[in-house]
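Supplementary Methods, section 5.1.

A reviewer requested that the exact input to the structure prediction be made available. We therefore reproduce it here, unchanged from the version used in the analyses.
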Amino acid sequence: MNNYTNDAVTLLRELIAIPSVSRSEDEAADKLGEYLNLWGLPYGREGNNLWVGCQDWDNNRKTVMLNAHIDTVKPVNTWTRDPFCPALEGDTLYGLGANDCGGGLVSTLQAYRILLNRPRNYNILWLASAEEEVSGENGLTRVIPMLPPIDVAIVGEPTGMQPATAERGLMVIDGYAYGVSGHAARAEGVNAIYEALDDLLWLRDYRFRKVSELLGETKLTVTVVESGTQHNVIPDLLHFVIDVRTNEFYQNEYVYEFLRKKMKKCKLQARSFRLHSSAISADHPLVKRCLEQGMKPFGSPTLSDQALMPWASLKLGPGDSARSHAADEFITIREIDEAINTYVHLLEGLII
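The structure derived from this sequence is encoded token-by-token as follows.
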């Protein structure tokens, strides 16, 4: 390992050992701050979000941001090892958050350190964000007002170091059908389950017309249905949940209003509109630079902090998304080393 890869692995092992489930990242943020101080990088902190710019900052230049998140999901019950024990076995480092998103966090940081001393025609900024796994208000949303203007960002989520140039949005909608309770033996009342059936069948069968080359269809999936209290009572309420995954052609607000108009018996209520689909233009200099490096753009079905970014961005990071949120999560040292080198080679030749 070179010095930067060694620094990345050392830091990642310390972070794995600190539980940092979303909304409880204080100690992990403290540890990151210690390392930034050690490496002589003056940083800003808002809540558990940390960022650092460059010593040659010029407001007349554009700005590239490297970003990854410090929080993790809760460990699942099927771990066969201690999720908070950073076990290095050969080339493989096990531990909660190693893949999502520790590998990207430490790789982007080391690439940032290297690029500080390389010729650039842009400013560079590194940001570690909190509460990504829950899209929390104290994560990226809280820190954006503190940041200088950003022109483009690389989000270090696990993508196998291939650029995800589009990402699905997410909207969760609660649906309600209403009836009148009564005794089942006397066929009294109005059954809320029957009231909802036609609308639920319509949701199952409907297809949005505009299909994305990278993201495919906008998907509507009913994931929860709840109704009834006991076998002999006609239910007067049915509650269901729709998981909506939008492509870049449909805004969440539009989909919500469209569904409200189509529901014949059910009432809908969106929990939030803020997690929009995102896409970066194929003509963007960063995308073109990825293509020059032989990378293959794709569309990501999973959500990240990109959904909250008001600037152009793509996902590019070490590891495999299939390992995320799974038992015995891991990243390899080779993946971290290759990621650092790839970021540096990609951004050294970038002209924006």
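Helices lie at 3-16, 26-38, 98-115, 140-143, 192-205, 252-262, 285-292, 333-348. These observations are discussed further in the main text.
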